[in-house]
Amino acid sequence: MAKYLISFPSKAMVVPEGELEAVGRAARAVIDEAKAAGVYVFAGGIDEAVPPALVAADGRVAAGGYPWAPTLDGGFTVLELLSREQAVAWAARIAKACRCDQELRVFGFDPRS
């Protein structure tokens, strides 16, 4: 089994006014289905009210992330699945619930982690 990251950046989720609550219910329903199926690892969104910090090996902390990297925001779901085909199917369900396309990535396997 592999762990898959299904995610979207904040700007991708454009929901008409008055429909955000329905989107939230639909997204939570898919997460509940993933939990019931035993494939759920975790899900959530980046708290954009809290700015990122860049922490060096010596413990120094600088405001912000890598200046050259794209902003990391939006929503994330991690599922543990048997195949990429299953991951695509779950990503499609999440895309339908959130009303925006989802990016799909697989975590590399490290047997010691």
TrEMBL record:
<protein>
    <submittedName>
        <fullName>Transcription initiation protein</fullName>
    </submittedName>
</protein>
<dbReference type="InterPro" id="IPR011008">
    <property type="entry name" value="Dimeric_a/b-barrel"/>
</dbReference>
